[in-house]
Write a structure and sequence with these properties.
By secondary structure, the chain is of the alpha/beta class. The protein is built from twelve helices and 20 strands. Bound molecules: guanosine-5'-diphosphate, 6-O-phosphoryl inosine monophosphate and magnesium ion.
Length: 421
Amino acid sequence: MVDVLLGLQWGDEGKGKIVDYFAPGYDIIARFQGGPNAGHTLYVEGKKVVLHQIPSGVFHDGIINLIGNGVVLDPVTLRKEAQKVAEMGVDCRKNLFISERTHLILPTHRALDKASEISKGNEKIGSTLKGIGPAYMDKTGRNGLRVGDLLDKNFTTQYIKLRLKHQRLLDAYNFNEDISAWEEEFFEALEFMRELNIVNGEYFINDRLSKGARVLAEGAQGSMLDVDFGTFPFVTSSSTTTSGVCSGLGVAPQKIREVIGVSKAYCTRVGSGPFPTELENETGEELRRLGNEFGATTGRPRRCGWIDLVALKFACMINGVTQIVMTKADVLDSFESLSVCERYSVNGQERSEVPYQMLKATIEPILSSFPGWKKDITGIQSADALPEQMQNYINHINTYLGVRITYVSNGPGRDQIIRLA
Ligand code: GDP
Ligand code: IMO
Ligand code: MG
């Protein structure tokens, strides 16, 4: 069976920590989409680690970590990350497997990402500049190079052909930064990649599933950044929702059991685009300060706001969420009162659905207010010790969504998580 764990908001919900927590219950942790735009933070023996390409099960002995075909892979990032985890005693050559169908991010994809963002001026997406969009464009445009191609003796010829094509596009953008140093790093990293376990991902996973293996599919980004269902065009270029698991790993839908949605107790977004509950005031700044809301990949300040139940309910519907993990509840500890958005006013009309075009100028959140708990919850270990005001907040969300919050995370540490009865 396959369980899915994914973000229900605009990314950075704390997926890495939660995957690390659940990992001992699984045989395989598999990334199914996204690439080094992801930054998943874990604390391993008190030490902070941010993973971009490697699945978050890597620090558990005896668990297989699989990079699925739906991912886009930057060999340079992978190599650096493998070195980082090696320093912590983990050898990726043993427990990391990569699908041969996984598309490669080339140095020119990164250059094209940057050139495209510059050309958009004020309308830029706020991309992480990791080459994600251009790499997925080459995949759907049927030009891209895949991990399996690395083992082909004609790889360099194929690379040069694609590079020339990219150069014509870069010329059209008037982009003339020298990327030769990136290319040098890239070719060095390819040598490293050839030593890794490159497998036929779909047979690899299905063979193990047929023998009873338990798989946890680890989402990157969040549902509201999905290329189809997110706030287009301010989205990423992959399917971040449950459907991406089937196409990104080669598993059939009936293999999927639980869909665990991760949501913060409030809401953040990094990069441009609509964010109806954004607080561009002192309260927003307070959330950023208390939640240390700065991007794990780019260091950019994250935009902060109240929890958006309209968007969360939409994400539960699209993903078929069966349970929710609420993270960063402790960040709300000091607030006198909390607000939740239950409806939008769209051009003056009340709506409880996410509109197709979510331009902030036309959307106002309609908020209800709840008393805060005003208590430090970071040391609490059992559900009955949670403050009553927090139980009310959770019950209200459960009722609105029709899906239960089953865990509350009350700090970044590995053990700071409470199972609700
Ligand atoms: P991901 O991309 O979904 O894995 O999330 P990120 O790692 O980008 O961002 C989540 C941040 O919140 C990280 O710095 C985590 O260490 C931190 N974090 C996760 N859970 C909690 C929590 O319950 N409380 C607090 N205070 N921080 C948390
Ligand atoms: P994790 O897995 C938060 C955002 C970028 C930008 C948009 C498109 O850590 O939750 P891209 O580089 O994908 O072309 O950028 O998506 N974005 C993320 N925001 N968390 C992420 O990943 C993100 N990955 C991309 O900021 O707005
Ligand atoms: Mg992140």
